[in-house]
Amino acid sequence: MAIKPRIVVIEDEPEISRFLKTALEAQGYSINAVPDAKTGIKISSAHPPDLIILDLGLPDMDGKSVIKSIREWSQVPIIVLSARDQETEKVAALEMGADDYLTKPFGTSELQARIRVALRRGSRKEQPEEQKYMFESLTVDLLKREVFLKGKAISMTPTEYDLLAVLARKAGRVVTQSELLRTVWGKNAEENDHYLRIYVQRLRQKIGDDPLNPQYVFTEPGVGYRLREAE
Ligand code: CA
Q: What's the pLDDT band for 207 if we cut at 50, 70, 90?
């Protein structure tokens, strides 16, 4: 039998902690649930897990400090849990090195999708990068810098392609606005979030994505963008 991936859940709200434990154990994960940051850091360092799910509002430590502390010795995937109106907290957590976030309340399918993508990132760290992104009729060849829609090459400007490539390399995970601006336009562009809105709109047009009901490029309000998980 395969070894179960082990997840440390650091969450002080008993109902959410119980929900996570039940839902994840049913999915075949092994769960250590703890109610505070200090215990979470301690057991994660003593016995490194495959993934950490971290609530940002803990009684003993600020979530960002927890991420900072863990990132000093580990690249383990971290998914943070936060409330709906905590966009700046989520962005700060991602900038500190969290992999992704879930906004409370969340359902099991969203939870499973985030975990699957984060665990894949965790197991891939020693392997070469993905060379192709594929979902339904869209293919992005990251080596040749080519994009195909229904098998037909689409022409893109270098900026449109760079934006799509950053999202494709992190497919399934959120990429913050400042990371996109920094990577595509350079570190002096971090304030220019209107570039992003314009280019995401162009990108959606080129790949035939409906901005009102996107199938590929999802907006994460106040945080960034997420390209659909590859097939
Ligand atoms: Ca809490």
A: very high
